[in-house]
Amino acid sequence: MNLFENVDFPTEQIIGPLVVLIITMVIAASVYKILLGKILPPKVFDFFFGPVCLFGFYLWAIPMQMGFYDVFKNYFN
Question: Which parts of the chain span the membrane according to its record (predicted)?
Fold first, then answer.
């Protein structure tokens, strides 16, 4: 008995953008580490690491002309 036989979930439209998201965030974090890893003290470096990854998310979302709400609304609707 398959409860979800009529549910169509477009995985090919989600996997590509998510791979690009991961790559963008890794590149943003790598550039941050290369440029400021030796200069900043470890506590300051760790404090700004999360916002830098969030900046990588914005770099991914802005060219798609999407905000936070639109990203998840389009994925799950």
Answer: 14-32, 44-62
- pTM to 2 decimal places: 0.65
d(CA 49, CA 28): 10
What pLDDT is stored for residue 48 in this prediction? 93
- In this prediction, residue 72 carries a pLDDT of 64
Give one DSSP letter per residue of the chain, joined into a string. --TTTT----HHHHHHHHHHHHHHHHHHHHHHHHHHTTTS-HHHHHHHHHHHHHHHHHHHHTTTT--HHHHHHHHH-
CA distance 15 to 32: 26
Confidence of residue 12 (pLDDT cuts 50, 70, 90): low
Q: For residue 16, give both structure tokens.
A: 């590509």
